[in-house]
């Protein structure tokens, strides 16, 4: 699993939502909270989760059922570590 820690920006993002919105350009929407993110690159959407098993379950669902009508099955689960608690 990839870990996103930083990107080419000097800002100190206060939330994982704002961090990902800045680090990953052209995201359509980000929903939820937590340090685990399920990214559907096909439609540029992200859901955030507090627990890895729940994030994995969400990833398994979109891998099985697709994320939309233009799905290319390009989904991944990442962890976010911004060095803050």
Indicate the topology.
Elements (H helix, E strand, L loop, with lengths): L1 E3 L11 H8 L5 E4 L3 E5 L4 E5 L2 H14 L9 E6 L5
Parallel strand pairs: 1-5, 2-4
Antiparallel strand pairs: 3-4, 3-5
Residues in helices, as a percent range: 25-40%
Amino- and carboxy-terminal Cα gap:
20 Å
As residue ranges, the low-confidence spans are: none
Mean pLDDT, all residues: 89
Strand content: 25-35%
Rg calc: 13 Å
Shape: globular
Helix/strand/pairing class, anyone?
alpha/beta
Strand order of the largest sheet: 1-5-3-4-2
Key structural traits:
85 residues, alpha/beta, 2 helices
Summarize the structure.
26% of the residues lie in helices and 27% in strands. It has helices spanning 16-23, 52-65; strands at residues 2-4, 29-32, 36-40, 45-49, 75-80.
Describe the protein's architecture and organization.
The chain is of the alpha/beta class and 85 residues long. It is built from two helices and five strands, in the order βαβββαβ. It has a five-stranded mixed beta sheet, sandwiched between helices. β3 and β4 form a beta hairpin. The longest helix has 14 residues. The chain is globular. The mean pLDDT is 89.
């Amino acid at each position: 699993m990839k870990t996103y820690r930083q990107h080419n920006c000097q800002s100190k993002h206060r939330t994982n939502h704002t961090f990902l919105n800045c680090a990953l350009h052209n995201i359509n929407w980000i929903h939820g909270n937590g340090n685990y993110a399920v990214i559907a690159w096909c439609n540029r959407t992200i859901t955030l989760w507090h627990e890895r098993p729940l994030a994995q379950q969400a990833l398994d669902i979109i891998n099985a059922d697709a994320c939309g009508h233009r799905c290319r099955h390009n989904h991944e689960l990442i962890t976010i570590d911004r060095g803050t608690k």
